[in-house]
Amino acid sequence: MSRVVTIVALLFLLAPCRSARAEEPAPDPSRGETYDGLPHRPGWRDDVKLVPRLVLTPMRGVFRGIGWVAHKLLDWDEVNRVHETVFEAFSTDDGKIGVRPAFQYSISFTPVVGLRFFDQKLLGPSTNFEAQFLTGGVNVIYAEVHARPTPNERAFQASINAIYNRRNDQVFTGIGYTTDDKRTVTVGSRYAVDSLDAGGLISTPLAPGLYVDAAGGFGLRRFGNGIHIADEPPIADIYCVRDLSGLCKLGTVDEVRVPGFNRGTQFFRAGATIRVDSRDNWYRPSSGALIEAGLDWTHGLGFDTSHYVRAHAAVSAVLDLWQRSRTIVIRFEFNDVEPISGQPVPFTELISLGGPDTFRGFRPGRFRNYSSVFAAAEYRWPIWMWMDATIFTEYGGVFGRAFEGFALERMKPDVGAGIRVRSSDAFFARAQFAYGWGDRWQFFFSVNTGL
């Protein structure tokens, strides 16, 4: 009997201890607590993660600040339905036909403003017709018409496009040597261009994920002296024909240094591209890859006796880091232009790097030659329901025919960041800033300019 009493007494004594132990909070790893109760010091994995965390901290802080401001503005807009009211006023009830404002600005270039019109019923159900007009004055005009008469759900797609571009602020910094700043000094200049392009594109699948694109069209370019912007004078002041004393002949441009400038160029172009595409979404991919290889053939018309081919190859891979929302995009691209006749290729038809879509730390037309090598790595993540952020680094350069003179030390890097405000299938606004080594800071902002 005494033994039973002793066991019961021990159970009563241990019960509060078990209850107290059960009520203890679970270990918190963020405070260094572990489940086994033993101390664990940071390992080499934590040390490796420390460097990118420190590097990305300022950028993350900037984007968090931008995101906070954007959230407040978008929350206010959602409550007051401002953008919906404006869009509804300039759209049909079903949203298939409408007009949108368009704007584009880039540092050291004339800003342009205009309108974009779209009609997704004009050519039939699920088709598309778009037109936009932007201007920055009588010397800066951009007009584009795009039509896709094939329904969106069809595998076979056809489209036609026409673009007129008139600008007097385009950049020319020379051909061939512009990435080698250790031995030469790059002299920038500005030229004017009047261009017209018209053509069509046909795309058809050969197998799941395998596509062939065929394109053809005509192009026309006429050139003139540009305007003086910052430290870059009109092209005739720098790339002129010089007399025996070394002085510029007034109003001339040297055709050896700027081939095709004086008479312009006019041509017919045809080409084909084969694509292997395993991306889960062409518009906003979170995984997969895209491999492209293409060849264009161009022949001058009339007085233009140029004749050349252009080869293009690119590989892109999208890596999903977390739940299809945080991705890394890696891209490698190679281009080469080869003359067929003895005539030089007009300078605007050479390979060029720079601008808001490729090599974003440099201005459009900053690098120009017969071939190019380009690589990019970009990290994308959402900062709001309809807003994405990105940070990127790029590395590229231009070289001679068949990559003559290729060397890693002749290539240049850039770094940058950007924000995109989008809908489910289109970008409404895009802003990005970048720094290119050996050049200057670049900033680009556009609204509703993509067709």
Structure description:
The protein has 2 domains: 46-89; 90-447, Porin, CATH 2.40.160. Helix content is 16%, strand content 45%. It contains 4 helices and 18 strands. The protein has helices at residues 2-22, 44-80, 82-89, 235-238, and strands at residues 97-106, 112-119, 128-137, 140-148, 157-172, 189-207, 210-225, 265-277, 288-300, 307-322, 326-339, 351-353, 367-369, 371-384, 387-399, 412-422, 427-436, 441-447. It has a 16-stranded antiparallel barrel with strand order 1-2-3-4-5-6-7-8-9-10-11-14-15-16-17-18. A two-stranded antiparallel sheet has the order 12-13. It is globular and about 70 Å long. The model is unreliable at 4-23 and 178-185 (pLDDT under 50).
Entry keywords:
18 strands; 4 helices; Porin; 16% helix; alpha+beta; 451 residues; globular; two-stranded antiparallel sheet
Fill in the CATH topology of the largest domain: Porin
Describe the strand arrangement of the main beta sheet, using strand numbers: 1-2-3-4-5-6-7-8-9-10-11-14-15-16-17-18
Q: Which of globular, elongated, flat, extended, rod-shaped describes the shape?
A: globular
Q: Over the alpha carbons, how many angstroms does the gyration radius reach?
A: 29 Å
User: Considering DSSP H and I runs of 4 or more, what fraction of the residues is helical?
Assistant: 10-25%
Sheet having the most strands: 16 strands, antiparallel, barrel
The number of E-state strands comes to: 18
| DSSP helical segment count | 4
